[in-house]
Amino acid sequence: MTDAPTRVIATAEAMDLLRRLGGVHGALMMHQSGGCCDGSSPMCYPAGEFLVGDRDVLLGVLDLRLGVGELPTDAPEGADGVPVWISGSQFETWKHTQLVLDAVPGRGGGFSLETPEGKRFLTRGRVFDADELADLESSPPLRGTDWEDGARPPVTTTAHVVAEAADACPVPGTLR
Q1: Which of 2-16, 35-49, 159-173 has the lowest mean pLDDT?
Q2: For the chain, what are the domain ranges?
Q3: 1 falls in which pLDDT band (50, 70, 90)?
Q4: Between β-strands 42-46 and 28-32, what pairing exists: parallel, antiparallel or unpaired?
Q5: Looking at residue 88, what is its pLDDT?
Q6: Rounded to an integer, what distance in angstroms lies between the CA atom of residue 165 and that of residue 147?
Q7: Which distant-in-sequence residues (6+ apart) come within 8 Å of 5 by Cβ?
Q8: What is the CA radius of gyration of the chain?
Q9: Strand order, beta sheet including 28-32
């Protein structure tokens, strides 16, 4: 277990949507799109349907067993874990930022599983502070080749689920 912050967390709404999608499609995976057809948006796929590249970076594994503020005690297995990936080049731009996966009303990206659900995934961000960055530098993220070789990230002792995005980062148009 590690005290390092996670590079990705999710809102309760995003976790609920992932659980619904998992009930229909089985195990899932996410990839933070770098901007092609659907812009820069988080895309949800059945596990293994999106080919992860050797240099893609694992931001983290969302644990569908967890609720708001609950701390993980062990690594999720099978469909309980949703790996969240980003391309290596895009990671270089976002490596100083914790991504907050949210779900909002609207239509999802054309290739993402939530498209017919009336909701879409949205990534928000929070810049890590200096201490968090130092913690993260001590354990480099896993890449696609590491995952293929069976490596998995350590379990963190930090919460992975927040009630709403504003609990983790500034959200435009909200008062806090």
Answers
A1: 35-49
A2: 8-165
A3: low
A4: antiparallel
A5: 92
A6: 29
A7: 98, 128, 132, 135, 136, 156, 158
A8: 15
A9: 42-46, 28-32, 81-86, 57-63
Confidence at residue 20, expressed as pLDDT on a 0 to 100 scale: 96
The structure's pTM equals 0.90
Q: Which residue has the tokens 């976002």?
A: 94
Mean pLDDT of 7-13: 95
Strands (DSSP E) found in the chain: 8-11, 28-32, 42-46, 57-63, 81-86, 97-105, 119-127, 161-162
- How far is it, in rounded angstroms, from Cα 31 to Cα 18? 13
Closest CA to 140 of 64, 61, 57: 57
Residue position matching structure tokens 């070789």: 149
